[in-house]
Amino acid sequence: MTDTSAAANLNGAFKPLQIGLAVSVLFFVGYIALGWNGWGPVASVEQAVGEVSRWCERVQPGLFYEPVNALSNLGFMVAGFWMLWLLGRDVLAGRTGLMVGHSPVALLYAGAVIWLGPGSLLMHGTHTSWGGWADNLSMVMYILIPWLINVSAMGRWGGRRLLTVYLGLVVIYGVGRWVNGWGLGINLDFFGLSIAFWVISEVLYRFHSQRLRWLSGFVGFAVAGIFGLTPMVMWADPARYWWVLLFWLPGLLSPHPPSGRRTYWPWFLLGMASYLGAFAIWQTGKAGHPWCQPDSWVQAHGVWHLMTAFATVCFFLCLRSERRIEQ
User: Fold this and answer.
1) Are residues 140 and 80 in contact, defined by beta-carbon separation less than 8 angstroms?
2) Does a structural domain hold residue 173?
3) Phi-psi region of 296 (alpha: psi -120 to 50; beta: other; left: phi over 0)
């Protein structure tokens, strides 16, 4: 292999990383240009300069209304860049797979993790309604991926169908969220529901059976309970929590056992521990909480960002551990 061809192979392997870095630089250039003269009217749920924000940090004048809570989102971007670097190394080594190399699904995952950073930064940095929309959309764009990977494997979908369904759900949710606000006008917490879908589909992936398909919806109630939403609360307000009926959707979409097997220790369990620990810390990072220190450079919500960024890396490595089952 000549030096020219080796350089071309190297450049091709890391082209997605180069694109990700370039787009991220352009994002910050655009962010500074748009916000140089102020961000305009703040969203109705946000606070004015000098007050304590919803997420504890005191609102500052300038480009970043919540500096720590905004810039801690760089953790997601660094995590996504590392994923793209690792995928580039796969290409150089000739490795292939669903979450290996330049697989569209692997690149989508890494790109969604990168986008979590700007999405959340726009909310904490600008306090605008469109920044809140971007933040919520980025979370949905990430959380869709793992459960769609699972049901596509057990539904025998092809890669094109997976990506088509993903894009359709993102567009429908994005437009619905913009027009109708949180809950899409029908009391649908799609992000929270997708967390339940992920755990339900992961249980099905690991322990698939026809009987479990019909019982799997009950796993969703356990997930909801971890986040403080009990069946008694749901029963008391069925119009608000009607979407629990969708807990059985992953089972309906998963008629076949998966053809692969993942290793859940250490990465999946570490990811869950990091996420749940971050959620507990997130609860303390709210205005009015006894532990809230609005003028501190250490903010609980910023720690939440860094710990959940680490969790995305753990889940990425778990997905990469999949090996095909010999039939």
Assistant:
1) no
2) yes
3) beta
